[in-house]
Amino acid sequence: MAPQSHLHIPHPSARPGDVPDFSYLALCDAGAVARPASNSPASKIENLAHELVRVLDDEGQAQGEWAPDLTPGVLLEALRQMLLTRVFDARMLNMQRQGKISFYIQSLGEEAVSTGQGMALLPDDMLFPSYRNQGLFIFRGTSLVDMMCQCLSNTRDMCKGRQMPILYHNRKGNVFSLSGNLATQYPQAVGWAMASMIKGENHISAAWVGDGSTSEADFHYALTFAAVYQAPVILNVVNNQWAISTFQGFAGGERRPFSARGLGLGIPGVRVDGNDLLAVYAVTRWAAERARQGGGPTLIELVTYRGGAHSTSDDPTRYRPRDEWAAFPLGDPIKRLKDHLVKNGHWSDEQHASLENTLKQTVTDAWQEAISHGTMNSGPQLDVREMFEDVYDEMPERLARQRDQLLALKGDLS
Amino acid sequence: MSQMNMIRAINSALDIMLGKDPTVIILGEDVGYFGGVFRCTEGLQVKYGEHRVIDAPIAEGGIIGSAIGIGVNGLRPVAEIQFADYIYPGLDQVISELARLRYRSGGEFFSPVTIRTPCGGGIRGGQTHSQSPEALFTHLSGVNTVMPSNPYDAKGLLISAIESDDPVVYFEPKRLYNGPFDGDPDKPAMTWSKHPGGEVPEDYYAIPLGQAALVEQGNDLSIITYGTMVHVAPGRRQTGRRQCRHYRCAFTRSTGCCHTQKVGGENRSLPDRTRGLEIQWLRRGTGCHRAGRVLLPPGSTDRACCRLGNTLPTRL
Q1: Cα separation of A390 and B199, whole Å?
Q2: Which segments of A267-396 does DSSP mark as H helices, in order?
Q3: What pLDDT, on a 0 to 100 scale, did the predictor assign at position B291?
């Protein structure tokens, strides 16, 4: 019988009840990938899109040319940032389970992405995060109380009750406003970087999407514009293997890595171990250097694993093996950095446990302060007039009329 | 004062704003070296450089998306979408991002993007070069929608749009680029040279957004309209069996129901004789139609309106 075409439906390597199988992930040993000069021509470094840059080996030691020159003090601060993100996430997840907030998204298992990349950029560089980049907000100095108040939609909510929990922004910290619509920030980040060049500044931008969102048209617009104008932007794909229940194969990840998506446009791609803080930092630093020298955009794929559910609205045991994270070959980013610091005599299990307790207390204190500004069910409430503000620079007459009608109605009801 | 058609008036507005404000940039398909398919940006790249008047890839979503980022970084982008019919790939960026950025960020971020786009029928463009999608945008909060009806307004309104810190979608009725059009395709084409709206100051002037203007004063009937139909309206004075001897035609320089209401305020004494005239969807349109049945000869209402509108590709 002659061969026939057939509709290919991608299937993940394991579903609930199956043994986790990550044999599809192409891995490299730590230190195995050479580090080219950051101004290398794109055509000479296409290997970076297919290999996997790793620094920390299984023994917790830094290996190879990508190993960054970071002091133990800086690494301990990175560890603290990651751990704080995880402790914050755990607390907020718990608060959602107790009905104190309506929704939450954790970054469990992906903390090295935000912390490592945040460290590699300068304060004036503009960040266009995805919804799982709370670590970037923390790194750029957003107070935990402000983040909690946003999730509570209370009287101190930076979004004035208009956004779902976790859709933060930080104007002073140069972190852009999160959208609920996926990948829209990608062409915006490219535009921001274009403007930086038009203004003759040397600030760069960086944007993040997940593997699933690479299917969106905005992803492709952004790559084209970034390549055409050689915009100084770092475009990151956080490949955590899962988009809710949709595995990365449905975004086209079965045959080529996401880091190779830009090669046809001449955009260098770098595939990096996203759970290796040292590698994440080094690769991002390299791309930032390249952008600042006029080398244009870089597409970075951060290979990681979504340790928790997509959000508080789904149960991952319905679509993937319960123990899949434990089998993930790139491990847990916090444990890996901790082991590195412990093995080199800069840290200990006791100090780690003590730090974790301190951070838990910090988060508890922040929560107590946050709820003093109101909760979903009690305490002070946002002024209903806020609903009509900020639609335009100045409120049009028709909105003022609607606001007054509502206030009159409220008066009648009370 | 010069005689200008609408293309020259728009070009003059862009020229003035590029010269006056170093943060203004233009981005769009064919806008740079070539000067735009309708010539609205002619000569601007030579004068201001290719970092200010930027040719873009053929990707409307990318043009609007990157323009938002450009605006967030302190510039004032004027993005051109070559035909309003092609704006839809960028609609998510307009609706979900541009319109709501200020709102969702508690007033901390905004992007002062102006999107210019030619619209409307009348150039034998068939169904992909004739659409009038302005109602989609007047339904959005956070974006102002503008459509001029003559060169004088085109220049003053575009300057206001670019200066506004709120985003503006600025529709250019392309049948009016070269002259007014009374709706009869069998008549010889008219030019702006003999029309008072074609008298345009060379220098800077701004017309505030959101205002209406009275074209003719009368007592028997009011017509509320905008854009191309401002010039079609005088030929549509008949209502039922009666010829109206006196009528007033008020047009909204910007579209949108708030502006229509302002016009409506003038007509309170004649509520049953107020009529709206729209080039586009009769139902759920910009709101002019809410004023009443479209004023056209008996039995020909829908057909006559659609000849200029969205749904029927005709010889227009």
Answers
A1: 37
A2: 277-292, 324-327, 333-343, 349-371
A3: 47
